[in-house]
Amino acid sequence: MTKRIFRSILCVSAAVLLAGLIITLGVLYGYINVQQRNELEDEITYLAPGVEAQGVEYLKKLENTDKRITLVDRDGTVLYDNETDAGEMENHSGREEIEEALQTGEGTASRRSSTLAEPTIYYAKRLDNGQVLRLAGSEYRMMTVFANLLYPICAVCLLMILLAAFFAMRSSEKIVEPINRLDVEDVKEGDVYEEIAPLIQKIGHQKETITNQVLEAQRQQREFEDMKEQMRREFTANVSHELKTPLTSISGFAEIIKDGFVKPEDIPGFAGKIFEESQRLIVLVNDIIKISQLDEGGIPYDREEIDLYDMAEEVLGRLAEPAKKKNINLQILGEHAKIRGVRLILDEVIYNLCDNAVKYNRENGTVIVRVKRDRRGIQLVVADTGIGIPKEHQDRVFERFYRVDKSHSKAIGGTGLGLSIVKHGAAFLGAAVELDSRPDEGTVITLTWKAA
Ligand code: ADP
């Protein structure tokens, strides 16, 4: 800032200096011209009586004059000229100053002389006998005046520029000093230029806003931490509960077999129940492991190009068996499209979506997986013709252990973790998840990878 002010002051000073110089030269030039004319006029006044008395002879006797002297007859004939032979000179009646002198008594002109070949100033006076006496001197031109004054002008300019620089430096420091001294925290009236007061106020407001924003962010962060802590606690409680139920069943069935309360022919049935419950436990524990891995990012980071169409087709292949049991028609449509991701996670996500689409479908229903690609990005859509999800549950089905119909979900082997894995997995893979569902009509879940 100091530098800028310094430069501005210096530029203004230099401009004023230059303008002053030009004006001074102009005035000086005008003054010199007037002086020259006066000089000629004075000299003619001295010469006139001599010429009137003695004529050309008087002029011929004159010595030591640096002026050109010409005597012209009233008809314009040159009678005498101290620089050239008068006989050879043309008629001068047409010369501006002569014409003027013949008419009014005196005349002046300033032009380039054809005889002397230089800028010349003329003064002519009509004598009593009607003849005109003319004096001429070389005229100082602007450039001549300037050239003669070059050294003093340069010296003065240099001095003035140095002075201007010095004062510019002092002034700029003085202007900036109160701003440097300024303490935005505590500005008292009169501390600083009144023009800056609104800026200071603005900074003060902004500071207040930023402080408030920081405090708000800290509060939100604390709330978020609290919420996370609560979710963790809920998750632990849920996990314990979910694990306890099948374990209690297993332990109960095993106990009555051990105590001999079961007839030998019923034992395979009870063993089957124990097997079922333990299978369910395995699925649950596996899901919990996957969720924890996604939570902690503990999955090996092997990102690769994966074809969504191929993977979906492969997943549907794995679901052919359960689909067949309900006579559900599995279809894959669309085109091949590749995304960059972790194969294991993408497989989990697609599997859970398709698994739900089969699990919550009706007899003879349909599951359609479609892979689409356009300039907005890549989409994988899983649509079923199943029982659908009522509006009020749609926001919550992605929560851990949340089920619309707990007993139904359990009966068909759900853990309540599938959509939670989908949500976390999709976020990990950079895809957005969208749910559109109507009870008794079906559910459509779309994963979108937006084009960059
Ligand atoms: P679950 O293991 O119980 O299927 P999810 O997290 O996968 O758990 O799903 C949560 C709940 O959302 C399910 O219990 C079910 O009620 C509902 N749901 C999920 N997918 C569908 C679907 N395709 N059709 C109808 N309901 C569904």
Automatic annotation (TrEMBL):
Query: Keywords in UniProt for this one?
Result: Kinase, Membrane, Phosphoprotein, Transferase, Transmembrane, Transmembrane helix, Two-component regulatory system
Please give the biological process terms from Gene Ontology that the record holds.
cellular response to phosphate starvation
A single GO molecular-function term is: phosphoprotein phosphatase activity
Q: What class of enzyme is it?
A: transferase
Its chief place of residence is: membrane
EC identifiers of the protein: 2.7.13.3
SUPFAM superfamilies found in the cross-reference section: ATPase domain of HSP90 chaperone/DNA topoisomerase II/histidine kinase, Homodimeric domain of signal transducing histidine kinase
Highest taxon in the source lineage: Bacteria
Q: Where in the cell is it found?
A: Membrane
Specify the Histidine kinase domain's residue ranges: 238-452
Residue stretches spanning the membrane: 9-32, 149-169
One Gene Ontology cellular component: plasma membrane
Query: Known InterPro entries for this protein?
Result: BphY/WalK/GraS-like (IPR050351), HATPase_C_sf (IPR036890), HATPase_dom (IPR003594), His_kinase_dom (IPR005467), HisK_dim/P_dom (IPR003661), HisK_dim/P_sf (IPR036097), Sig_transdc_His_kin-like_C (IPR004358)
PANTHER family linked to this entry: PHOSPHATE REGULON SENSOR PROTEIN PHOR (PTHR45453:SF1)
Protein name as catalogued = histidine kinase
Q: Which organism is it from?
A: Candidatus Lachnoclostridium pullistercoris
